[in-house]
């Protein structure tokens, strides 16, 4: 792949905030495009983005493009190694994690096209691991709380997860859509708001976080499915955004509370149940319930190999949320996934609350054989786009 032009433009994400779109034009005139999402809450160990998009664009034009234009690239690692050397910082603060990721993603698409490969096939080659295709499970965030909604729910996401291995991804989406609409009817009957939050889920005022879980169980049953067998529940606590976890779980201690709700409800995943520096409680919870529940580190690991290695060594968590914009390049994302898989961690490829129409994470999830794709509710175009892309990929089999 020979790059003749590389440039960025400013677009809007799903929250109406400015974000970066990168265009990579190759010598033969083919143009590949990628855009970068952002989170409502950025973990302290994430790659640092350049918030001023004008500056990000200038960094591409003045630093990155001159170093890449006219050069030939054959591998993703050769692109990303150059990007990392141009930035020269551990947390990408010089050029911006969003700047590097936009270029890395656009070049990834350009490389795939230049080699006449699908994006999935090219990512698999870059990943370098023989992947056994397993049924990809969608995680539908249909009740929003925390930083994703203007309501009184402390926990950030309440998700339904279709579990049946024998049905297609499209059929799993059909189940999620049905539950979503049943939930809407139920909330209307309860005289609750059916306005939606950042990720497309409903954002009602409820008496407690546990009531949200109970309502999900009821909606699953009313839709004609069996909780725990057909449909599981996942809860993202997002503890970094909870001012006082003890108040949120009162009268129980957080550890006891999590043990209780995972025993009483068909919860299969708890994400970020403790803050990103509370390794001891992560260890204790993993020991207590890790054999039956996936404990996913998002803010804890930030798609970062160094952070993940600490978790593996300390037996803190058993699952990881993968978000490419937390680390800044495709290659680093793949290395983190590889480390997690070798440690028998489950992989959840995830969107951000401030999204674009870009569907790269869908191809990534399929390419690496991830267990979950977390892209929000079956609602709002930027969320549906991710699920639709997997449906398209599934139809090509």
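-> sequence recovered:
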């Amino acid at each position: 792949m020979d790059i003749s032009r590389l440039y960025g433009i400013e677009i809007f994400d799903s929250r109406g905030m400015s974000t970066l779109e990168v265009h990579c034009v190759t010598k033969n005139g083919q143009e590949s495009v990628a855009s970068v999402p952002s989170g409502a809450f950025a973990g302290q160990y994430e790659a640092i983005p350049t918030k001023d998009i004008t500056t990000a664009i200038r960094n591409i034009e003045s630093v990155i493009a001159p170093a890449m234009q006219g050069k030939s690239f054959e591998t993703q690692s050769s692109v990303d190694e150059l990007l990392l050397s141009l930035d020269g910082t551990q947390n990408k603060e010089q050029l911006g994690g969003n700047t590097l990721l936009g270029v890395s993603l656009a070049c990834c698409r350009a490389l795939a096209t230049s080699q006449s490969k699908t994006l999935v096939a090219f990512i698999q080659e870059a990943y370098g691991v023989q992947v056994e295709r397993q049924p990809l499970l969608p995680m539908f965030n249909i009740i929003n709380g925390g930083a994703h909604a203007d309501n009184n729910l402390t926990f950030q996401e309440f998700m339904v997860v279709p579990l049946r291995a024998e049905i297609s991804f499209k059929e799993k989406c059909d189940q999620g859509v049905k539950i979503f609409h049943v939930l809407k009817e139920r909330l209307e009957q309860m005289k609750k708001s059916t306005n939606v939050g950042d990720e497309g889920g409903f954002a009602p005022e409820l008496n407690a976080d546990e009531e949200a879980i109970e309502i999900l169980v009821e909606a699953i049953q009313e839709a004609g499915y069996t909780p725990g067998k057909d449909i599981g529940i996942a809860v993202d606590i997002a503890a970094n955004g909870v001012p006082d976890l003890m108040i949120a779980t009162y009268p129980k201690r957080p550890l006891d509370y999590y043990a209780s709700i995972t025993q009483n409800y068909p919860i299969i995943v708890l994400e970020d149940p403790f803050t990103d520096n509370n390794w001891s409680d992560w260890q204790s919870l993993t020991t207590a319930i890790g054999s039956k529940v996936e404990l996913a580190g998002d803010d804890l690991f930030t798609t970062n190999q160094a952070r993940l290695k600490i978790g593996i060594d300390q037996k803190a968590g058993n699952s990881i949320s993968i978000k490419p914009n937390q680390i800044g390049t495709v290659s680093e994302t793949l290395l983190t996934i590889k480390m997690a898989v070798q440690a028998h961690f489950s992989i959840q490829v995830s969107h951000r609350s401030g999204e674009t129409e870009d569907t790269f994470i869908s191809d990534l999830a399929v390419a690496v054989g991830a267990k979950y794709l977390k892209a929000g509710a079956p609602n709002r175009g930027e969320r549906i786009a991710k699920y639709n892309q997997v449906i398209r990929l599934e139809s090509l089999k």
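The domain at 137-395 is CATH 3.20.20.120 (TIM Barrel).
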